[in-house]
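Weekend entry, working from home. Most of the wet-lab plans are on hold until the incubator is repaired, so I used the time to fold the two sequences that have been sitting in the queue since the last round of cloning. Logging both here for the record. First:
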Amino acid sequence: MAALKSQVLRFDHLTTRQISKLDRVRTVLILPGAILEQHGPYLPSGSDGIFSRRLAADLASSIAAKPGWTAVMLPTIPLGAGAANEIGRKCSFAGSVTIRPSTLRTVFTGAYRRGRGNERMLR
């Protein structure tokens, strides 16, 4: 019996035909998120995103290490609800992008709202 293929895929690189062929039971969608915020004069505003994408990639590799499992990486959502450099409702460094916590929650849970998880994206 042949071993089941395991892999890490990028959602934004897949066609609708490729998505429809994914195993809905053994496919995990990973949605990284990280705020765009300034960390001072020495680090880029995307530092949190760089770290988040690395953690997500490591998670995807761990999932794909299991025979027959596929990890699908969705594009990073570059939003956050409160910048770490925010003091007294003012950012100490220019360049942070924040949204309301309720909006952030809606962005991340919207795709799974009816409890259908992967099934909704992979129909």
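Second, folded right after the first finished:
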Amino acid sequence: MSNGVSRKGAGRPAQEIARLQVQVMPNAKRPGVAGMHGDAVKIRLQAQPIEGKANEALIRFVAEALDLPKNAVSVSHGLTSRRKLLEISAPSMTTEDIRQTLLALVTQD
């Protein structure tokens, strides 16, 4: 599974799940993609990192950027960390497609 895509779900049609590492910067002046941070996509969020607000903002941001419903994006690891692993259900996109789509949104602060 070197491409970051796996299949999930027993007893129902296989669904492609892409996994993407992100580095979150909460409390930013404005939301956006800031580029790469090692092997992770660095994402700025205006939300504070309390009571799951930054996680909700991250899911909303990524879903909107990829034109997916919010329930297609979830945080699988790192709920309380700035470094997170997202699982994204996007049957027509690979992990690299998702990374490139997000990096196309890079904004300068």
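Plan for Monday: verify the second prediction. Confidence is low (pLDDT under 50) at residues 5-13.
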